[in-house]
Design goal:
5-stranded mixed beta sheet, 28% helix
Length: 272
């Protein structure tokens, strides 16, 4: 991936970021109200400090000169693929207000008796499946893209995690990014949660593989299991864990209480 392609990728990420919540939170928490194309502030100094402390391995370590050039909350996987593939295919292209020529979607074969949730892992699905936080650093020579999945009171859902790892792998492969000068851009998957939610497995992929065993009849996780065995990009290797000390220690939920056939009361209930 050339320097021009890297810059096009970051520009594309911005052009596709239509998540109003992200822009509102940047204004609310960072006080960043500049025009988005001109913005230079994407994350807080505290988050920047914590991300730099992650043990990502020597190859992925952040140099002192590296700066955050993009961050997007709830960033759709469809958008990520579009940003990558457009940058790889035509790094000189810039949006002019017109639509790009249609790009064929990969074919999808419906599996009888199994929901697409367990079978459709295409780079573009038309769904709102997203990344909780996408953070991109640049040191002028290369990009480091941190794909962050966060949980609070709940544990990481293995099906959800498996789907994202599979789709991310296919996004990186199908976009052509791996066929280019790979050292110019690297992706690392990061889990963010209270310490108690850190997986004990050696990698995110191994954690995602520990799905419930097949019951009698159809194994709805069969294609997920097969796909996890054939990841090509290295996404999900290791457990890069960002501990969320800031999450409430005793979170509560509001729950309704039934009486007969109807709910007649509500109460506070500790989350488990």
């Amino acid at each position: 991936m050339t320097r021009g392609t890297s810059e096009a990728f970051v520009d594309n990420l911005k052009h596709l970021n239509a998540k109003e919540r992200d822009h509102l939170m940047r204004l609310a928490y960072l006080g960043e109200g500049a025009k988005y194309e001109e913005s230079r502030v994407f994350i807080s100094a505290e988050l920047d400090r914590l991300l730099r402390r992650l043990e990502l391995g020597e190859r992925f370590s952040l140099s002192e000169s590296a700066t955050c050039v993009f961050a997007g909350m709830d960033y759709h996987l469809d958008w990520l693929f579009a940003a990558l593939s457009a940058a790889v295919v035509n790094p000189g292209w810039r949006p002019t207000g017109d639509s790009l020529p249609p790009v064929p979607m990969e074919p999808f074969e419906v599996v009888d008796g199994i929901k697409p949730l367990y079978t459709d892992f295409r780079p573009v699905t038309g769904s709102q499946e997203d990344i909780d936080l996408l953070v991109v650093y640049s040191d002028g020579a290369r990009l480091l893209v941190l794909v962050i999945e966060a949980k609070g009171s709940a544990k990481f859902d293995k099906v959800q995690l498996a789907r994202k790892l599979i789709r991310l792998d296919r996004i990186l492969v199908r976009s052509g990014m791996l066929a280019n000068d790979r050292p110019q851009i690297d992706f690392r998957f990061v889990l963010a949660a209270p310490k108690s939610s850190k997986p004990k497995e050696s990698s995110c992929v191994e954690y995602a593989k520990s799905l419930p065993p097949p019951r009698s009849g159809t194994d709805k996780f069969r294609l997920i299991r097969e796909a996890l065995e054939n990841l090509q990009s290295g996404i999900g290797d290791g457990v890069n864990f960002l501990e969320l000390d800031c999450f409430p220690k005793t979170p509560y939920a509001v729950t309704r209480l039934p009486e007969g056939d109807a709910f007649s009361h509500w109460t506070w209930k500790p989350r488990r």
